[in-house]
Amino acid sequence: MSIVWMIIIGLIAGAIARLLVPGKESFGWIGTIVLGVVGGFVGGTLGSLVFAPHKLSFRQPIEHTFIGAIVGAVIVLIIYKFVRART
User: Fold this and answer.
1) Prediction pTM value
2) What is the DSSP annotation of 5-70?
3) Domain ranges of the chain
4) Which of 31, 28, 27, 17 minimizes the C-alpha distance to 78?
Protein backbone atom coordinates (compact mmCIF):
# COMPACT_ATOMS: atom_id res chain seq x y z
CA MET A 1 0.00 0.00 0.00
CA SER A 2 1.39 3.38 -0.89
CA ILE A 3 1.83 6.26 1.53
CA VAL A 4 -0.99 8.22 -0.13
CA TRP A 5 -3.47 5.37 0.35
CA MET A 6 -2.31 4.94 3.93
CA ILE A 7 -2.99 8.63 4.60
CA ILE A 8 -6.40 8.54 2.91
CA ILE A 9 -7.51 5.39 4.72
CA GLY A 10 -6.08 6.76 7.96
CA LEU A 11 -8.05 9.99 7.60
CA ILE A 12 -11.32 8.19 6.86
CA ALA A 13 -10.81 5.53 9.56
CA GLY A 14 -9.80 8.15 12.14
CA ALA A 15 -12.83 10.28 11.31
CA ILE A 16 -15.17 7.30 11.62
CA ALA A 17 -13.55 6.32 14.93
CA ARG A 18 -14.03 9.87 16.23
CA LEU A 19 -17.70 9.65 15.26
CA LEU A 20 -18.15 6.27 16.96
CA VAL A 21 -16.46 7.13 20.26
CA PRO A 22 -18.49 9.66 22.28
CA GLY A 23 -16.88 12.90 23.40
CA LYS A 24 -15.04 15.77 21.79
CA GLU A 25 -11.34 15.68 20.97
CA SER A 26 -9.32 18.78 20.23
CA PHE A 27 -6.91 17.42 17.62
CA GLY A 28 -7.36 18.44 13.99
CA TRP A 29 -7.22 16.54 10.73
CA ILE A 30 -3.52 15.70 11.09
CA GLY A 31 -4.25 14.13 14.47
CA THR A 32 -7.13 12.25 12.86
CA ILE A 33 -4.78 10.90 10.17
CA VAL A 34 -2.29 9.80 12.83
CA LEU A 35 -5.12 8.17 14.78
CA GLY A 36 -6.25 6.26 11.69
CA VAL A 37 -2.74 5.16 10.68
CA VAL A 38 -1.88 3.98 14.20
CA GLY A 39 -5.31 2.37 14.39
CA GLY A 40 -4.63 0.59 11.12
CA PHE A 41 -1.42 -0.81 12.51
CA VAL A 42 -3.12 -1.91 15.75
CA GLY A 43 -6.16 -3.35 13.96
CA GLY A 44 -4.06 -5.11 11.34
CA THR A 45 -1.79 -6.65 13.94
CA LEU A 46 -4.69 -7.81 16.10
CA GLY A 47 -6.55 -9.15 13.07
CA SER A 48 -3.52 -11.09 11.92
CA LEU A 49 -3.03 -12.59 15.34
CA VAL A 50 -6.69 -13.50 15.85
CA PHE A 51 -7.79 -14.67 12.40
CA ALA A 52 -4.61 -16.01 10.84
CA PRO A 53 -2.10 -17.01 13.50
CA HIS A 54 1.53 -16.64 12.56
CA LYS A 55 0.74 -15.01 9.22
CA LEU A 56 1.80 -11.42 9.70
CA SER A 57 1.52 -9.88 6.26
CA PHE A 58 1.39 -6.29 5.09
CA ARG A 59 -0.51 -7.20 1.90
CA GLN A 60 -4.16 -7.34 2.88
CA PRO A 61 -7.31 -6.74 0.83
CA ILE A 62 -8.59 -3.18 1.13
CA GLU A 63 -11.76 -4.25 2.99
CA HIS A 64 -9.77 -5.96 5.74
CA THR A 65 -7.37 -3.04 5.96
CA PHE A 66 -10.17 -0.50 6.25
CA ILE A 67 -12.24 -2.41 8.81
CA GLY A 68 -9.12 -3.21 10.82
CA ALA A 69 -8.10 0.44 10.74
CA ILE A 70 -11.49 1.53 12.08
CA VAL A 71 -11.48 -1.08 14.86
CA GLY A 72 -7.88 -0.27 15.76
CA ALA A 73 -8.54 3.48 15.72
CA VAL A 74 -11.51 3.03 18.07
CA ILE A 75 -9.30 1.00 20.43
CA VAL A 76 -6.52 3.60 20.29
CA LEU A 77 -8.98 6.46 20.85
CA ILE A 78 -10.56 4.74 23.87
CA ILE A 79 -7.11 4.11 25.37
CA TYR A 80 -6.14 7.75 24.64
CA LYS A 81 -9.28 9.04 26.40
CA PHE A 82 -8.67 6.74 29.38
CA VAL A 83 -5.04 7.85 29.79
CA ARG A 84 -5.95 11.51 29.25
CA ALA A 85 -8.69 11.33 31.90
CA ARG A 86 -6.28 9.90 34.49
CA THR A 87 -3.72 12.72 34.11
Assistant:
1) 0.79
2) HHHHHHHHHHHHHHHHS-S-----HHHHHHHHHHHHHHHHHHHHHHHSTT---S---HHHHHHHHH
3) 3-86
4) 17
